[in-house]
């Protein structure tokens, strides 16, 4: 009996052990801890660690809507191109643009310092630009650059503004030019890319740069950058006669109005830049402290002309190096109020025109603008020109720009801004341009032939920020072309802009524009 009871007890115990083991096997394993996104405070507000890495990332961007009155172009500085320059029924009254922008900033601490990558890209949709003009059954493609199809309206455009890597003092990729002042093309305004008087390329230029930090806000940089996108204003071959065909006119902001498409440049021969064989070399020294900032920058720009004739056996002038210098100043802590600031810069160029006359524009070439039905003005701003069997003649310019920003309250601010630039040719260039290569549009009653000219610009705006990072702006601007030709120009029929053949008084021109902007930044 005892043995029987002992056997039953041991068997029950063994069964319980087996059952307990089976139940234990069915129990869930302990879950791994969830890795939450952590704040990365070492690089400023908005940075977070990418989960599972030691890299910090910050996302940003904005949504923007611009409405320009009397603009007729995505660049909102007056009616200055194609039908806009004609200022008649073919001129549109406004331009509308919407943009969404995204920025991605990553940083990783290493033994060599911080490794940084940065991207800024956006999608832009523009409407209200030039439409095609149909006269006598002939369709003229009057669309601006970037439009698709005859008479199309500018539509969506995807832009990469910045894309670069920074490591151990080096910057490689598409970044702000080292020549550019910290406030770029915008010393106090919003109007896009049309203010003369200083280098810009604020949306980035391909470059290889080394920057040295000396402490106390003092730094220096040396850079090699690609000139082909923003810094080649053109070289005119004055010795090549224009083909004599009816021109199509297109806009070249910020100059004033319609120009002949290459190869015709208002009769001033052919646009004759050779290939890009050398980068631009840029140096910069900056002192940035609480009271403000001082920056000095210089650039060397290579002028590589094509040939005297249409083929390589005709030879050509020797290439030349041009240069540009700029001094920029920012003054903070003004007695007029907290956050008020003054930005001002001055620039001088010799054979490097785009470091003054808006490097952001696609071409420099030449331009004209009509005022009503009886007057016309001319301006040309290449890097250099050359005559048959002659040397390269570098064009000289100088200019300045500035702005003052005042904060009336945390929600209201305003600014005033202005700019001035002067373009000058050598005596040798003038002698040939006025004696032999005079444009056919100017044949006739000229009393003064002088391709020199000046540009003056002034404007103001008011900004309202009802809540943080949401701003509404109203801005007005005025521009004047002070050109040095005088007399009467005999202009042929220009169907593309609706201008009849006739005599037009050559005189100074002016224009105005107004822009409204809404922007939400995040």
What's the gist of this structure?
The chain has one domain (62-521): Porin, CATH 2.40.160.
Structural overview:
Helices cover 7% and strands 47% of the residues. The protein has 522 residues and is mostly beta strands. The chain has one domain: Beta Barrel (Porin), CATH 2.40.160. The strands form five sheets. Strands 2-3-4-7-8-9-10-15-16-17-18-23-24-26-27-30 form a 16-stranded antiparallel β-barrel. Strands 19-20-29-28-25 form a five-stranded mixed β-sheet, with no helix packed on it. Strands 14-11-21-22 form a four-stranded mixed β-sheet, with no helix packed on it. β19 and β20 form a beta hairpin. One of its GO terms (cellular component) is pore complex. It is found in: Cell outer membrane. GO terms for molecular function: porin activity.
Summary keywords:
7% helix, 16-stranded antiparallel beta barrel, five-stranded mixed beta sheet, mainly beta, Porin, 522 residues, 30 strands
What is the CATH topology descriptor?
Answer: Porin
What is the CA-CA span between the terminal residues? 86 Å
- Biggest pleated-sheet summary: 16 strands, antiparallel, barrel
- How many structural domains are formed by the residues? 1
| Helix-and-strand structural type | mainly beta
Shape: globular
Give the helix tally.
3
Content of β-strand: over 45%
Neighbour order of strands in the largest sheet: 2-3-4-7-8-9-10-15-16-17-18-23-24-26-27-30
The fourth-level CATH homologous superfamily is: Porin
- Rg estimate, integer Å: 31 Å
The level of helicity is under 10%
Based on the coordinates given, report the CATH architecture.
Beta Barrel
According to DSSP, the number of beta strands is 30
Can you tell me the residue ranges where pLDDT is under 50 for at least 5 consecutive residues? 132-154, 242-267, 359-366
Membrane topology: Multi-pass membrane protein
Main location: membrane
Function: Forms passive diffusion pores that allow small molecular weight hydrophilic materials across the outer membrane.
Subcellular location: Cell outer membrane
């Amino acid at each position: 009996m005892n043995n029987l009871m002992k056997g039953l007890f041991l068997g029950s115990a063994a069964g319980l052990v087996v059952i307990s083991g089976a139940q234990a096997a069915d129990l869930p394993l302990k879950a791994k801890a969830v890795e939450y996104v952590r704040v990365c405070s070492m690089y400023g507000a908005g940075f977070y660690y990418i989960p599972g890495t030691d890299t910090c990332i910050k996302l940003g961007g904005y949504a923007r809507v611009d409405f320009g009155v009397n603009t007729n172009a995505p660049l909102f500085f007056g009616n200055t191109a194609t039908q806009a320059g004609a200022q008649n029924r073919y001129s549109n009254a406004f331009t509308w643009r919407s943009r969404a922008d995204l920025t991605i900033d990553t940083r990783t601490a290493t033994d060599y310092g911080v490794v940084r990558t940065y991207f800024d890209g956006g999608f832009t949709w523009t409407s209200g630009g030039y439409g095609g003009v149909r006269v006598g059954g002939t369709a003229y493609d009057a669309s601006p650059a970037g439009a698709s199809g005859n008479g199309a309206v500018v539509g969506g455009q995807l832009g990469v503004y910045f894309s670069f890597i920074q490591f151990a003092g080096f910057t490689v990729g598409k970044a702000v030019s080292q020549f550019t002042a910290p406030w770029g093309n915008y010393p106090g305004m919003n109007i896009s890319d049309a203010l003369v008087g200083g280098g810009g390329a604020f949306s980035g230029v391909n470059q290889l740069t080394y920057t040295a930090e000396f402490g106390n806000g003092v730094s220096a940089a040396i850079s090699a950058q690609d000139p082909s996108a923003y810094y080649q204003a053109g070289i005119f071959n004055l010795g090549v006669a224009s083909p004599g065909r009816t021109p199509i006119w297109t806009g070249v902001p910020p100059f004033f109005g319609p120009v002949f498409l290459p190869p015709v440049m208002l009769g001033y021969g052919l646009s004759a830049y050779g290939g890009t064989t050398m980068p631009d070399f840029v140096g910069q020294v900056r002192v940035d402290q609480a009271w403000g900032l001082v920056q000095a920058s210089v650039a060397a720009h290579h002028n590589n002309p094509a040939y005297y004739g249409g083929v390589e056996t005709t030879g050509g002038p020797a290439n030349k190096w041009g240069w540009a210098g700029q001094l920029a100043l920012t003054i903070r802590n003004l007695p007029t109020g907290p956050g008020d600031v003054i930005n001002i810069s001055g620039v001088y160029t010799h054979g490097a025109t785009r470091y003054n006359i808006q490097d952001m524009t696609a071409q420099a070439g030449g331009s004209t603008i009509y005022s009503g039905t009886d007057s016309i003005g001319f301006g040309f701003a290449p890097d250099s020109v050359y005559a048959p069997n002659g040397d390269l003649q570098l064009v000289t310019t100088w200019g300045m720009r500035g702005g003052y920003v005042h904060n009336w309250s945390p929600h209201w601010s305003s600014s005033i801004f202005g700019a001035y630039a002067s373009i000058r040719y050598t005596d040798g260039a003038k002698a040939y341009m006025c004696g032999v290569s005079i444009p056919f549009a100017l044949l006739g009653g000229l009393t003064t032939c002088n391709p020199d000219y000046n540009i003056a610009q002034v404007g103001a705006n008011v900004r309202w920020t009802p809540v943080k990072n949401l701003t509404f702006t109203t801005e007005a601007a005025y521009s004047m072309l002070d050109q040095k030709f005088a007399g009467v120009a005999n202009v042929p029929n220009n169907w593309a802009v609706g201008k009849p053949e006739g005599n037009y008084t050559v005189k100074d021109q002016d224009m105005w524009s107004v822009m409204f902007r809404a922007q939400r930044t995040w």
